[in-house]
Amino acid sequence: MILILLKLILAHLIGDFFLQPVNWVKDKEKRKLKSVWLYIHVAVHIALMFLIVWDLSYTVLIFSIGLLHLIIDGLKLTLQKKKTRRLFFFIDQLLHVSTIAILVPIFAKSDFEFTLNLDLLLIICIAFLTKPTSILMKTIFSKWNISKLTKDNESLKDAGKYIGVLERLLVFIFIVVGHWEAVGFLITAKSVFRFGDLTATKERKLTEYILIGTFLSFGIAIVVSLIYINLKPYV
Question: Are residues 161 and 85 in the same domain?
Fold first, then answer.
């Protein structure tokens, strides 16, 4: 049961965050239930579940999750407004994961494979700390006009995103191998590099944005690492 649960969560992460282009999202938000990309998105999810699960005995489970995914996304697109977009993003993800967690015990077998489960859990944690977390943080920060704050600060395209991904992966690795002191060193090193940004501007909002982003990025990485460490003995 744990194996199928991890496989379906991995399929969800890939389908919702890695294989859903921005233009699909924009078209869905504009055309709602009339958008063809809504149905293609759900079809991609179903195909991914079949590919990763690789067991036709779970056909009913997979199509049930796919149908509920369509219903949840449809309700989200129909009900959300510009002001509630962030809130509905988190509700949407919570409902998708809850759907998988509720349906798996109903349909799944009791098969158990320790090594494969452990590998899947590791893959899920690493995958989550990359693009999904970047999108999560972007959604949180959409409350503020960040582009206005950073208008005069030139930087490489998407540099901040890649730096964030790398730092989260490093934090995860350091904690998993038991070197918490390296996490402290990483935080110190980033603080030194960021000191120039914080002293070069008198913009308090930009300073607060940098601090919140740093703490949030490290915080998510630490939480995911602790979840992995504590779940590892059971999977």
Answer: no
CB neighbours of residue 88 within 10 Å: 15
Q: Are residues 28 and 102 in the same domain?
A: yes
Q: What is the DSSP string of 135-187?
A: HHHHHHHTTS-HHHHTTT----TTHHHHHHHHHHHHHHHHHHTT-HHHHHHHH
With left for phi above 0 and alpha for psi between -120 and 50, is residue 178 left, alpha or beta? left
233 vs 173: CA distance, rounded Å: 17
Domain match, 156 and 93 both = no
Q: Which 8-state DSSP code applies to residue 234?
A: G
Q: 156-191 pLDDT, tens per residue?
A: 566 778 888 999 999 999 999 999 999 988 888 777
Mean pLDDT of 119-126: 92
Interatomic CA distance for residues 11 and 97, integer angstroms: 11
Q: What are 61-90's pLDDT values in tens digits? A: 999 999 999 999 999 999 999 889 999 999
Domain co-membership, 99 together with 170: no
What distance in Å separates the CA atoms of residue 38 and residue 31, rounded to the nearest whole number? 9
Model confidence, pTM: 0.85
Residues 83 and 176 in one domain: no
Distance CA 205, CA 105 (A): 47
- The answer on 17 and 93 residing in a single domain is yes
Is there a contact between 35 and 27 (Cβ–Cβ < 8 Å)?
A: yes
Task: Verify that 104 and 170 share a domain, yes or no.
Answer: no
Q: Domain containing 79: what range?
A: 2-112
Average of pLDDT values for 6-19? Answer: 96
Q: 123 lies in a domain?
A: no
